[in-house]
Amino acid sequence: MHFNPVMLQAAGAAPGGLFGQGAGPLFLMVGMFVVMYFFMIRPQAKRAKEQKKFADSMNSGEQIVTTAGIHGRINKANDDGTLQIEISRSTFMTIERSAVSMEMTMAFRKKADAAAGVTTAAK
To answer: How many CB atoms lie within 10 A of CB 121?
Structure first.
């Protein structure tokens, strides 16, 4: 009687089933996905949600900083999702709401508030 080595290997692997030697890599892959989700995907989605909320809440008269580093004051919020900003006296620019940087605007506002606190405390 002649046995094929492939059939012997298949017969030897059958008793292990799903939780035999093949379960280790499966658990490793699931673990890697969970780690990637909690450390990369979830924080990025949260940050995008905060950025959208920030962009939707901007009103006329607020000081902003764009992602390109342009400082300006919102003159008018247009219905098509754009903002008209004044970058210097009677110089206007139309930008998308998504072009406003939340991080840079918040840092600018914090710096301006700190400077205003120092000048009022000095008087």
So the answer is: 7
